[in-house]
Design a protein that fits this description.
This protein is globular. Helix content is 31%, strand content 17%. Helix 13 links the parallel strand 13 and strand 14. The chain is α/β, with parallel strands linked by helices and 675 residues long. The protein has 22 helices and 27 strands. The model has no long low-confidence stretch (mean pLDDT 95). The protein has three domains: 337 residues, Aldolase class I (TIM Barrel, Alpha-Beta Barrel); 137 residues, 3-Layer(aba) Sandwich (Rossmann fold); 119 residues, FAD/NAD(P)-binding domain, CATH 3.50.50. Helix 1 runs parallel beside helix 2 and helix 3 runs parallel beside helix 6. It binds flavin-adenine dinucleotide, NADP nicotinamide-adenine-dinucleotide phosphate and iron/sulfur cluster. The site of iron/sulfur cluster (SF4) has 14 residues, from helix 10.
């Protein structure tokens, strides 16, 4: 029986004249950290090879600078000398083995360079970087154009099918194209024609150097999302000039890194920015790629079917699942491990100079290190707890050939992800639970729900190994009045849906305190209404003049919330590096009162008494919600060991401090690889 093509637009080849891409999916550029690691290129080759094997139409590498000043950091990678070519060969050969195509991204960071030798259009420091750039001389600018062209020629020699010239996200070319960062009065500043000259001349020089049969993608900032960004007619003029200069494809760039509008976080509605590429479709003739928060084949198909673009770019979804395209093509989309947009193991790592990976797929960027060979000794293994740790362990161990049975006291799998998924803006967490359900079914893993386990019944069942993935218990506090009926745990709010009054105090401002505050202040369903969301973050969809920024229009908060912590540091300072500011800004817009540096004195009929700088104050509230961290839940361990059972601890059951799903899943996978 033949199956109809499930995603006809996404899977349709695209003819670029001199070459054809096998489908409309571009894997967007991502720095992995392997580029700079000792011996990292072999690992990088394995990483890209897996994505080529997985059916991606065109891969774009992480950014590599065309010269030293443009490097991301002092030891950032560069393509400027003939000896740089050899190691890239390993990558291109690996991709070509599987009929894949790959472009090298050329990225000059300009004022975003994290070193003291940075340069830019004008000597204006970026708000997100301590280094002030030097203004480039005209000679330096022409030299940089030449460096781009030379780097492209070297990329060609290294076997790449093309290059992507990075002209968005607030990097050098974008710094020249916008008045925000370009205050020059010479032929590189002032009029748009002058400001866009660097980008246009770079494409022209590159085309001259590489000849006609080489892909040149230009990543154009279609929405700067910063004050002093370009107006729509300017973006269009630049796109036309880039086309005329010899680009093969224009890719869409959304928002500078310093923009205060979220563009890729999980709370951004899916495909939230494809409308801007659709507008550009009317203006140019070369293929356009659209991007940002496209994470399922259904969304990709819809965007293409609606004519918003000729291709879709997905970056993080290829960390989450290397075989995204092939699974979709084989009508097995439900088996795709979906990117949940959390940034926790990808961007947050890169910004901390750590190797990128993926929360839901710990194998990403560890293809040669975290491997799962068939077991030689099949074991019967009981896994207690179907949270992220237990689920990850079970699937990987079962793939290796072990006989796994899962037990959970709850009525559904997912553990704490079942609470996370209810927080407005975190609906993507449903996808991870869906993925594990499909895997369990496919692997034939036996699951016992509503099945709380004791050490005795586990030991009696005679398993070879017991894996305790029993998670955590919320921390019990010792505050006078903690037993008052006003007090609830976050589980009573999120899991048991107990009613909560209009005025609420939240004890603990970690990830869960923030999520609970969001849950209490945001109307259900509002976050995924694109128009409302754009208004809330001040993005003017109809922008013509003055850039796309409009005043933010926050919704009225559902409740009055006081979010408290004992630390005197910034509330929310410990949240994710690339997403913490979004959580803080979201709650600020809801008028949440953030109170650092307090000690909790008493909870009484009126509310909670706190002390700040020795001054007691009463916060009158209807309820006090405790989100004060957690402790490991591993009661079964001691008894099991005493009964002679071999036991392993993973996830929260092992260490609760600083636990997150990233560690839980990785630990489950690592145990499965070695058991
Ligand atoms: P758990 O998910 O706690 O699972 C333990 C399982 O064991 C449960 O299903 C429980 O029913 C079962 N169990 C316990 N005892 C027994 C027994 N005796 N018999 C049978 N079954 C038993 N993390 C992130 O990384 N990113 C986030 O954005 C994020 N957001 C969150 C939002 C909220 C609101 C919450 C509550 C948590 C969030 N987390 C987040 C934390 C993340 O969910 C946890 O770190 C992760 O779930 C821990 O996984 P685990 O498998 O160790 O334990
Ligand atoms: P957490 O981040 O460790 O926060 C615990 C909070 O409780 C802190 O604000 C802490 O602040 C307070 N606290 C600790 N001990 C206390 C005590 N004895 N009395 C009063 N307050 C106390 O833990 P969490 O919020 O429970 O989150 C659990 C894990 O889930 C986290 O590690 C987090 O990574 C993960 N998570 C992540 C996200 C995300 O978006 N990435 C979202 C939710 C959860 P003070 O000590 O200053 O009072
Ligand atoms: Fe997506 Fe989170 Fe994985 Fe990054 S870490 S790729 S955002 S699921």
């Amino acid at each position: 029986m033949t199956t109809a093509n499930p995603y006809p637009h996404m899977l349709e080849p695209i003819d670029l004249g001199f070459t054809t891409l096998k489908n409309r999916v571009l894997m967007g550029s991502m720095h992995t950290g392997l580029e700079e690691e000792n011996g990292g290129f072999s690992k990088l080759a394995a990483f890209y090879e897996e994505r080529a094997k997985g059916g991606c139409g065109l891969i774009v590498t992480g950014g590599v600078s065309p010269n030293t000043r443009g490097r991301v950091a002092p030891f950032g990678s560069e393509m400027s000398r003939f000896w740089h070519v050899k190691k890239h060969r390993e990558v291109t050969d690996a991709v070509h083995k599987h009929d894949g195509k790959i472009c090298l991204q050329l990225l000059h960071t300009g004022r975003y360079a994290y070193h003291p030798f940075s340069v830019s259009a004008s000597a204006i420091k970026a708000p997100i970087n301590p280094f002030k750039p030097k203004e480039m001389s005209s000679r330096q600018i022409w030299g940089t154009i030449n460096d781009y062209a030379k780097a492209s020629r070297l990329a060609q020699k290294a076997g790449y099918d093309g290059v992507e010239i990075m002209g968005s996200e607030g990097y050098l070319i974008n710094q020249f194209s916008c008045k925000r960062t370009n205050h020059r009065t010479d032929e590189w500043g002032g009029s748009l024609e002058n400001r866009m000259r660097l980008g246009v001349e770079t494409v022209r020089a590159t085309r001259e150097k590489v000849g006609p049969n080489f892909i040149i993608i230009f990543r154009l900032s279609m929405l700067d999302l910063v004050e002093g960004g370009n107006e729509w007619h300017e973006v269009v003029t630049m796109a036309k000039a880039i086309e005329e200069a010899g680009a093969t494809i224009i890719n869409t760039g959304i928002g500078w890194h310093e923009a205060r509008v979220p563009t890729i976080a999980t709370s951004v509605p899916r495909a939230a920015f494809t409308w801007i590429t659709e507008r550009m479709k009317k203006e140019v003739n070369i293929p356009l790629v659209t991007t940002n928060r496209i994470n399922t084949p259904e969304v990709a198909e819809e965007v293409l079917a609606n004519g918003h673009a000729d291709m879709v770019s997905m970056a993080r979804p290829f960390l989450a699942d290397a075989h995204f395209v092939n699974k979709a093509a084989a009508n097995r989309a439900e088996e795709i491990n979906t990117c949940i947009g959390c940034n926790q193991a990808c961007l947050d790592h890169v910004f901390k100079q750590q190797r990128a990976s993926c929360l839901v797929n710990p194998v990403a960027c560890y293809e040669t290190e975290l491997t799962f060979s068939d077991t030689k000794t099949e074991k019967r293994i009981a896994v207690v707890g179907a949270g992220p740790a237990g689920l990850a362990f079970s699937c990987y161990a079962s793939e290796r050939g072990h006989k796994v049975e899962i037990f959970d006291a709850a009525s559904e799998i997912g553990g704490q992800f079942n609470f996370a998924k209810q927080v407005p803006g975190k609906e993507e967490f449903y996808e991870t639970i869906r993925y594990f359900n499909v895997q369990i079914e496919k692997l034939g893993i036996k699951v016992h729900l509503n099945s709380p386990q004791t050490a005795e019944n586990l030991a009696e069942a005679g398993f070879d190994e017991v894996v305790l993935a029993t998670g955590i218990k919320p921390r019990q506090l010792d505050i006078p009045g903690i037993d008052h009926e006003k007090v609830k745990t976050y589980l009573q709010v999120l899991r048991d849906k107990e009613p909560v009054g209009q005025k609420v105090a939240v004890i603990g401002a970690g990830g869960i305190g923030f999520d609970v505050s969001m849950f209490l202040t945001e109307k259900e369903g509002l976050v995924n209404n694109l128009d409302e969301w754009l208004k809330e973050w001040g993005v003017d969809r109809n922008y013509e003049e003055g850039g796309a920024l409009a005043p933010m229009e926050a919704h009225k908060a559902e409740r009055e919330v006081f979010l408290m912590q004992r630390k005197t540091s910034k509330v929310g300072g410990g949240l994710g590096k690339t997403t913490g500011w979004i959580h803080r800004a979201s709650l600020q817009k809801k008028g949440v009162n953030m109170i650092p540096g307090c000690s909790y004195k008493e909870i009484n009929d009126k509310g909670i008494v706190i002390e700040i700088n020795g001054e007691p104050q009463l916060i009158e509230v209807d309820h006090v919600i405790v989100c004060a961290g957690q402790e490991p839940n591993r009661e079964l361990q001691e008894k099991l060991v005493s009964l002679g059972q071999s036991v392993h601890l993973i996830g929260g059951a092992d260490v609760a401090a600083e636990l997150d799903a990233k560690r839980a899943i990785r630990q489950g996978a690592e145990l499965a690889a070695s058991i």
